[in-house]
Amino acid sequence: MTDAAARLIDHALALRWEAIPADAREAAKAFLLDSLAVGAAGRNAAHADGVLAMVQGWGEGGSAGVLGRPDLRLPAPSAAFVNAFQIHGQEYDCVHEAAVLHPMATALSALLAELSRGEPVSGQALLTAIVAGVDVAVTLGLAAPGALTFFRPATAGIFGCIAAIASLRAMPREMALDAFGHGLAFASGTMQAHVEGKPALPVQVANAARGSLVAIDLARAGMPGVRGAVEGPFGYLALLEGETALEPALDRLGKGHRIAETSWKPFPTGRAGHGGIGAVQSLMAKGLTAANLDSLEYRAPPLIHRLVGRPAQA
Fold this sequence. Notes:
15 helices; 2 strands; mainly alpha
Protein backbone atom coordinates (compact mmCIF):
# COMPACT_ATOMS: atom_id res chain seq x y z
CA MET A 1 0.00 0.00 0.00
CA THR A 2 1.26 3.47 -0.88
CA ASP A 3 1.84 5.50 2.28
CA ALA A 4 0.45 8.66 0.79
CA ALA A 5 0.30 10.59 4.07
CA ALA A 6 3.99 9.95 4.71
CA ARG A 7 4.95 11.02 1.20
CA LEU A 8 2.92 14.22 1.48
CA ILE A 9 4.21 15.13 4.93
CA ASP A 10 7.80 14.26 4.04
CA HIS A 11 7.51 16.53 1.02
CA ALA A 12 6.18 19.40 3.13
CA LEU A 13 8.84 19.02 5.82
CA ALA A 14 11.68 18.80 3.30
CA LEU A 15 10.86 22.00 1.42
CA ARG A 16 13.38 24.84 1.71
CA TRP A 17 12.93 28.31 0.26
CA GLU A 18 16.31 28.34 -1.46
CA ALA A 19 15.42 25.15 -3.35
CA ILE A 20 12.04 26.39 -4.61
CA PRO A 21 12.18 27.49 -8.27
CA ALA A 22 11.70 31.14 -9.15
CA ASP A 23 8.26 30.68 -10.72
CA ALA A 24 6.88 29.10 -7.55
CA ARG A 25 8.52 31.76 -5.37
CA GLU A 26 6.90 34.54 -7.36
CA ALA A 27 3.56 32.76 -7.34
CA ALA A 28 3.71 32.30 -3.56
CA LYS A 29 4.30 36.02 -3.09
CA ALA A 30 1.57 36.97 -5.56
CA PHE A 31 -1.06 34.67 -4.08
CA LEU A 32 -0.17 35.69 -0.53
CA LEU A 33 -0.91 39.31 -1.45
CA ASP A 34 -3.93 38.35 -3.56
CA SER A 35 -5.47 36.30 -0.77
CA LEU A 36 -4.88 38.96 1.89
CA ALA A 37 -6.60 41.53 -0.34
CA VAL A 38 -9.46 39.20 -1.21
CA GLY A 39 -9.92 38.39 2.49
CA ALA A 40 -10.04 42.07 3.42
CA ALA A 41 -12.62 42.70 0.70
CA GLY A 42 -14.53 39.67 1.98
CA ARG A 43 -15.57 41.50 5.12
CA ASN A 44 -18.32 42.87 2.87
CA ALA A 45 -19.32 39.45 1.56
CA ALA A 46 -22.89 38.27 2.07
CA HIS A 47 -23.36 36.89 5.59
CA ALA A 48 -19.82 37.85 6.71
CA ASP A 49 -21.11 39.97 9.59
CA GLY A 50 -23.45 37.17 10.68
CA VAL A 51 -20.61 34.67 10.65
CA LEU A 52 -18.47 37.04 12.69
CA ALA A 53 -21.26 37.56 15.24
CA MET A 54 -21.68 33.80 15.57
CA VAL A 55 -17.95 33.26 16.05
CA GLN A 56 -17.73 36.02 18.65
CA GLY A 57 -20.24 34.01 20.65
CA TRP A 58 -17.57 31.32 20.97
CA GLY A 59 -15.40 33.78 22.90
CA GLU A 60 -13.24 36.83 22.32
CA GLY A 61 -10.00 38.13 23.77
CA GLY A 62 -7.57 36.20 21.59
CA SER A 63 -4.47 37.32 19.72
CA ALA A 64 -5.43 36.55 16.11
CA GLY A 65 -6.49 39.27 13.70
CA VAL A 66 -9.28 39.24 11.13
CA LEU A 67 -8.67 40.55 7.61
CA GLY A 68 -10.34 43.90 6.95
CA ARG A 69 -11.22 44.35 10.64
CA PRO A 70 -8.05 45.92 12.10
CA ASP A 71 -9.32 46.49 15.64
CA LEU A 72 -10.65 42.97 16.18
CA ARG A 73 -8.84 40.10 17.91
CA LEU A 74 -10.16 36.56 18.30
CA PRO A 75 -8.88 33.19 19.48
CA ALA A 76 -6.85 31.54 16.72
CA PRO A 77 -9.43 28.90 15.65
CA SER A 78 -12.16 31.55 15.51
CA ALA A 79 -10.02 33.91 13.43
CA ALA A 80 -9.16 31.06 11.05
CA PHE A 81 -12.88 30.42 10.57
CA VAL A 82 -13.75 34.06 9.82
CA ASN A 83 -10.74 34.71 7.59
CA ALA A 84 -11.38 31.59 5.51
CA PHE A 85 -15.04 32.55 5.14
CA GLN A 86 -14.08 36.03 4.00
CA ILE A 87 -11.42 34.85 1.54
CA HIS A 88 -13.84 32.48 -0.21
CA GLY A 89 -17.04 34.42 0.52
CA GLN A 90 -17.12 36.27 -2.80
CA GLU A 91 -15.62 33.51 -4.99
CA TYR A 92 -12.73 35.91 -5.61
CA ASP A 93 -9.93 33.64 -4.35
CA CYS A 94 -7.42 31.88 -6.57
CA VAL A 95 -8.08 28.43 -7.98
CA HIS A 96 -6.14 25.43 -9.28
CA GLU A 97 -8.36 24.48 -12.17
CA ALA A 98 -7.14 20.93 -12.81
CA ALA A 99 -7.67 19.99 -9.16
CA VAL A 100 -10.94 21.99 -8.96
CA LEU A 101 -9.67 23.43 -5.71
CA HIS A 102 -9.22 26.83 -4.04
CA PRO A 103 -6.04 26.19 -2.03
CA MET A 104 -5.30 29.53 -0.38
CA ALA A 105 -8.54 30.25 1.48
CA THR A 106 -7.92 27.38 3.85
CA ALA A 107 -4.11 27.34 3.95
CA LEU A 108 -3.52 31.05 4.49
CA SER A 109 -6.24 31.35 7.12
CA ALA A 110 -4.79 28.45 9.08
CA LEU A 111 -1.25 29.83 8.78
CA LEU A 112 -2.26 33.33 9.92
CA ALA A 113 -4.00 31.82 12.94
CA GLU A 114 -0.98 29.68 13.78
CA LEU A 115 1.34 32.68 13.48
CA SER A 116 -0.76 34.54 16.03
CA ARG A 117 -0.18 31.97 18.76
CA GLY A 118 3.45 30.99 18.42
CA GLU A 119 6.97 32.20 17.84
CA PRO A 120 7.56 34.61 14.96
CA VAL A 121 8.90 33.15 11.73
CA SER A 122 10.68 34.61 8.71
CA GLY A 123 8.85 35.65 5.59
CA GLN A 124 10.67 32.89 3.73
CA ALA A 125 9.36 30.30 6.19
CA LEU A 126 5.80 31.55 5.68
CA LEU A 127 6.11 31.49 1.90
CA THR A 128 7.64 28.01 2.00
CA ALA A 129 4.72 26.83 4.13
CA ILE A 130 2.29 28.25 1.58
CA VAL A 131 4.03 26.34 -1.22
CA ALA A 132 3.93 23.16 0.88
CA GLY A 133 0.26 23.50 1.76
CA VAL A 134 -0.79 24.15 -1.82
CA ASP A 135 1.31 21.21 -3.05
CA VAL A 136 -0.44 18.84 -0.64
CA ALA A 137 -4.01 20.05 -1.13
CA VAL A 138 -3.71 20.14 -4.92
CA THR A 139 -2.04 16.73 -5.03
CA LEU A 140 -5.09 15.28 -3.32
CA GLY A 141 -7.31 17.09 -5.80
CA LEU A 142 -5.34 15.74 -8.76
CA ALA A 143 -5.54 12.25 -7.23
CA ALA A 144 -9.31 12.36 -7.84
CA PRO A 145 -9.94 13.26 -11.50
CA GLY A 146 -13.66 12.46 -11.37
CA ALA A 147 -16.52 14.91 -10.88
CA LEU A 148 -16.88 16.53 -7.47
CA THR A 149 -19.45 15.13 -5.08
CA PHE A 150 -17.84 16.57 -1.95
CA PHE A 151 -16.51 20.15 -1.88
CA ARG A 152 -12.81 19.61 -2.50
CA PRO A 153 -11.55 23.04 -1.31
CA ALA A 154 -12.70 21.95 2.15
CA THR A 155 -12.12 18.18 2.06
CA ALA A 156 -8.64 18.29 0.51
CA GLY A 157 -8.02 21.77 1.86
CA ILE A 158 -7.76 20.69 5.48
CA PHE A 159 -4.82 18.43 4.67
CA GLY A 160 -3.09 21.30 2.91
CA CYS A 161 -3.53 23.42 6.05
CA ILE A 162 -1.98 20.74 8.25
CA ALA A 163 0.98 20.27 5.92
CA ALA A 164 1.48 24.04 5.77
CA ILE A 165 1.58 24.37 9.56
CA ALA A 166 3.88 21.36 9.82
CA SER A 167 6.24 23.11 7.40
CA LEU A 168 5.94 26.47 9.16
CA ARG A 169 6.78 25.03 12.57
CA ALA A 170 9.20 22.32 11.36
CA MET A 171 7.12 19.80 13.30
CA PRO A 172 8.59 16.42 14.20
CA ARG A 173 7.64 13.94 11.48
CA GLU A 174 5.60 11.60 13.70
CA MET A 175 3.67 14.51 15.19
CA ALA A 176 2.94 15.90 11.73
CA LEU A 177 1.70 12.48 10.60
CA ASP A 178 -0.55 12.27 13.66
CA ALA A 179 -2.02 15.67 12.80
CA PHE A 180 -2.54 14.59 9.20
CA GLY A 181 -4.40 11.54 10.45
CA HIS A 182 -6.61 13.62 12.71
CA GLY A 183 -7.47 15.77 9.70
CA LEU A 184 -9.49 12.90 8.26
CA ALA A 185 -11.97 13.17 11.14
CA PHE A 186 -12.63 16.83 10.29
CA ALA A 187 -12.69 16.57 6.48
CA SER A 188 -16.18 17.50 5.30
CA GLY A 189 -18.00 19.54 2.70
CA THR A 190 -20.76 18.85 0.21
CA MET A 191 -21.58 20.02 -3.31
CA GLN A 192 -25.29 20.11 -2.42
CA ALA A 193 -24.87 23.76 -1.50
CA HIS A 194 -23.61 24.42 -5.02
CA VAL A 195 -26.58 22.63 -6.56
CA GLU A 196 -29.01 24.75 -4.55
CA GLY A 197 -27.10 28.02 -4.80
CA LYS A 198 -26.84 28.32 -1.03
CA PRO A 199 -24.04 30.30 0.66
CA ALA A 200 -22.63 27.30 2.54
CA LEU A 201 -19.46 26.75 0.51
CA PRO A 202 -17.37 29.40 2.33
CA VAL A 203 -18.67 27.97 5.62
CA GLN A 204 -17.19 24.62 4.64
CA VAL A 205 -13.87 26.28 3.78
CA ALA A 206 -13.98 28.08 7.13
CA ASN A 207 -14.63 24.86 8.99
CA ALA A 208 -11.65 23.19 7.28
CA ALA A 209 -9.29 25.98 8.34
CA ARG A 210 -10.53 25.83 11.92
CA GLY A 211 -10.48 22.02 11.98
CA SER A 212 -6.86 21.94 10.88
CA LEU A 213 -5.85 23.78 14.05
CA VAL A 214 -7.75 21.23 16.14
CA ALA A 215 -5.93 18.41 14.32
CA ILE A 216 -2.57 20.10 14.94
CA ASP A 217 -3.34 20.65 18.62
CA LEU A 218 -4.44 17.04 19.14
CA ALA A 219 -1.11 15.88 17.74
CA ARG A 220 0.78 18.33 19.92
CA ALA A 221 -1.10 16.96 22.91
CA GLY A 222 0.30 13.51 22.12
CA MET A 223 -2.83 11.88 20.68
CA PRO A 224 -1.97 9.44 17.90
CA GLY A 225 -3.73 9.88 14.58
CA VAL A 226 -4.69 7.30 11.95
CA ARG A 227 -2.03 6.51 9.36
CA GLY A 228 -4.17 5.46 6.39
CA ALA A 229 -5.81 8.86 6.12
CA VAL A 230 -5.54 9.02 2.33
CA GLU A 231 -5.72 5.53 0.84
CA GLY A 232 -7.00 3.44 3.76
CA PRO A 233 -10.24 1.45 3.30
CA PHE A 234 -12.09 4.23 5.14
CA GLY A 235 -9.64 7.00 4.21
CA TYR A 236 -10.05 10.20 2.26
CA LEU A 237 -10.15 8.76 -1.25
CA ALA A 238 -12.48 5.86 -0.40
CA LEU A 239 -14.98 8.02 1.46
CA LEU A 240 -14.92 11.33 -0.35
CA GLU A 241 -13.84 10.65 -3.93
CA GLY A 242 -14.84 8.21 -6.66
CA GLU A 243 -12.40 7.78 -9.52
CA THR A 244 -8.82 7.97 -8.24
CA ALA A 245 -5.34 8.34 -9.73
CA LEU A 246 -3.17 8.54 -6.62
CA GLU A 247 0.22 7.41 -7.90
CA PRO A 248 0.42 9.85 -10.85
CA ALA A 249 -0.50 12.71 -8.51
CA LEU A 250 2.09 11.71 -5.92
CA ASP A 251 4.72 11.32 -8.63
CA ARG A 252 4.39 15.04 -9.39
CA LEU A 253 5.66 15.96 -5.91
CA GLY A 254 9.02 17.61 -6.33
CA LYS A 255 8.45 18.18 -10.06
CA GLY A 256 7.65 21.85 -9.93
CA HIS A 257 5.11 23.24 -7.49
CA ARG A 258 1.38 23.44 -7.80
CA ILE A 259 1.14 27.07 -6.71
CA ALA A 260 2.79 28.03 -10.00
CA GLU A 261 -0.17 26.40 -11.77
CA THR A 262 -2.75 28.37 -9.78
CA SER A 263 -4.89 31.08 -11.39
CA TRP A 264 -5.89 34.41 -9.92
CA LYS A 265 -9.35 35.76 -10.69
CA PRO A 266 -10.06 39.03 -12.46
CA PHE A 267 -13.75 38.84 -11.51
CA PRO A 268 -15.39 38.13 -8.11
CA THR A 269 -17.30 35.10 -9.29
CA GLY A 270 -16.87 31.39 -9.79
CA ARG A 271 -14.18 30.61 -12.37
CA ALA A 272 -16.77 28.97 -14.61
CA GLY A 273 -18.32 32.36 -15.35
CA HIS A 274 -15.13 34.13 -16.37
CA GLY A 275 -15.16 33.11 -20.04
CA GLY A 276 -18.60 34.60 -20.54
CA ILE A 277 -17.70 37.80 -18.72
CA GLY A 278 -14.52 38.19 -20.76
CA ALA A 279 -16.43 37.59 -24.00
CA VAL A 280 -19.02 40.25 -23.15
CA GLN A 281 -16.28 42.72 -22.21
CA SER A 282 -14.65 42.14 -25.59
CA LEU A 283 -17.96 42.83 -27.33
CA MET A 284 -18.48 45.97 -25.24
CA ALA A 285 -15.08 47.22 -26.38
CA LYS A 286 -16.43 46.90 -29.93
CA GLY A 287 -19.54 48.94 -29.14
CA LEU A 288 -22.00 46.51 -27.53
CA THR A 289 -24.35 48.19 -25.04
CA ALA A 290 -27.54 47.21 -23.28
CA ALA A 291 -29.43 49.51 -25.63
CA ASN A 292 -28.29 47.81 -28.83
CA LEU A 293 -28.36 44.19 -27.61
CA ASP A 294 -31.32 42.02 -28.58
CA SER A 295 -29.99 38.67 -27.36
CA LEU A 296 -26.75 36.88 -26.61
CA GLU A 297 -26.09 33.15 -26.60
CA TYR A 298 -22.97 31.83 -24.86
CA ARG A 299 -21.93 28.24 -25.52
CA ALA A 300 -19.76 26.56 -22.92
CA PRO A 301 -18.59 23.06 -21.96
CA PRO A 302 -21.01 20.88 -19.95
CA LEU A 303 -19.05 21.43 -16.71
CA ILE A 304 -19.65 25.17 -16.86
CA HIS A 305 -23.36 24.65 -17.45
CA ARG A 306 -23.47 22.26 -14.49
CA LEU A 307 -21.71 24.73 -12.22
CA VAL A 308 -23.45 27.98 -13.13
CA GLY A 309 -26.35 27.03 -15.41
CA ARG A 310 -29.05 26.78 -12.78
CA PRO A 311 -31.94 29.27 -12.95
CA ALA A 312 -31.14 32.68 -11.51
CA GLN A 313 -32.57 33.40 -8.07
CA ALA A 314 -32.11 36.01 -5.40
